[in-house]
Amino acid sequence: MNILVCITHVPDTTSRIAFTNDNTEFDKNGVQFIIGPYDDYALARAVELKEQNGGKITVLNVGEADSDPTIRKALAIGADEAIRVNAFPSDSFFVANQIAAIAKEGDYDLILMGRESIDFNGGMVHGMVGELLGLPSFSPVMQLEVEGGNAKITREIEGGKEKLEVSLPFVAGCQEPIAEWKIPNMRGIMSARTKPLNVVEPSDATVHSAISAYELPPAKGAVKMIDADNVSELVDLLKNEAKVI
Rounded to an integer, what distance in angstroms lies between the CA atom of residue 95 and that of residue 10? Predict the structure, then answer.
């Protein structure tokens, strides 16, 4: 089984967020970057499928050179080789085009990625990749079993779950609990140093969006204590101030 796993290089959720250049650029100084958590689930499931069925896992990132440590971590977890498209991931359409260009050359049985990145939360790339390749795409996929050339999928839908049987190949945006999250062991970390990480230049693709400005959410206000017997004041605050009822 030939599996392509697409990963993002995103700030750790515990990082302090700041912006530069008149709030038009993210300030990377002092920020710890990680594999996107949903991409981590996709990679973990790919490793499990490889253990069950054999094959090869290629991990793909669209990013600049500072993504390399994140890619090496993916190799330590169990990917066999890596490709980095040497470009800033400008927007979803640009990234999807880069993934599709690589996928066309690889004859992959599965193209897995997280359901969304945790920095922009767009959740659009898997659908775009499917369209560009003429393949079905499914998201968010919570369970994935492969038997020969077919797969059984469980994905989350509004109000429940949907179970599907589909033929390979396809694109899946993954989320928990599709696999057990994997932590690289010492053997994996050592072997990752010698696994191939191929850097390729981006293909031509239009960028359709631009950042006009970033802004942080407003600071939390002070806590208001309401007397337990004063229901009318509580209702008034929920309705007119918090606007949740």
Answer: 14
